[in-house]
Design goal:
12 strands
């Protein structure tokens, strides 16, 4: 199992006038941003499409079938994982049992994420690139093959999206106070 560090961004309610901090940009809590440099010191730019943080580790129960003692390693929906995919050991599935859930299918006895080249629709801020997923990729990293479009400016993003923290996102980010989650 991988060790993961989680960062939670929290909006602080303040009264009175905003104060600026030394170093960093001029954006105080709640100010729009493209990256951390737009925010005052000690603040971070939180993008609307940045991976969700949960305060618990991703569900990565297995990387391959070899980790499952006779059961199969299945891909599962995991909203606490950066790419939304986790894994767990359980008995083999079949095409008619429906055990895999939406966005997944049973392939040779194991639930797998339906890839974007097989009918899964990526978000407009993502690119479909199945070549990034190989046979040696751990099950919990075998996602739908939808990856964020990387960028250095808004011009690289289509559909009126914004470049925030190096990826195209649906809206500008917001300067927030980072809070570490144990």
């Amino acid at each position: 199992m991988r060790a993961c560090f989680v960062l939670v961004l929290v909006v602080a309610a303040c009264s009175g006038t905003a104060r600026s901090r030394d170093g960093g940009g001029n954006g105080d809590v709640g100010a729009p941003c493209h990256g951390g440099g737009d925010c005052s010191a000690d603040l971070a730019c939180a993008g609307v499409n940045d991976p969700q943080v949960c305060g618990i580790p991703p569900r990565e129960g297995c990387a391959t079938d070899a980790d499952c003692g006779g059961d199969r390693c299945h891909a599962i929906d995991d909203p606490c994982s950066p790419d939304g995919i986790g894994s767990e050991c359980r008995p083999a599935c079949d095409l008619v049992d429906g055990i895999c859930g939406p966005g997944f299918t049973c392939d040779a006895g194991a639930c797998v994420a339906i890839r974007c080249d097989a009918g899964f629709a990526c978000e407009g801020r993502e690119v479909c690139d199945p070549s990034r997923i190989t046979a040696t990729t751990p099950v919990f990293d075998r996602n739908h093959a939808c990856f964020p479009v990387t960028c250095t400016s808004d011009a690289a993003c289509s559909g009126g999206r914004f470049c925030v923290n190096g990826t195209c996102q649906d809206a500008l980010g917001s300067c927030e106070i980072p809070v570490a989650v144990p």
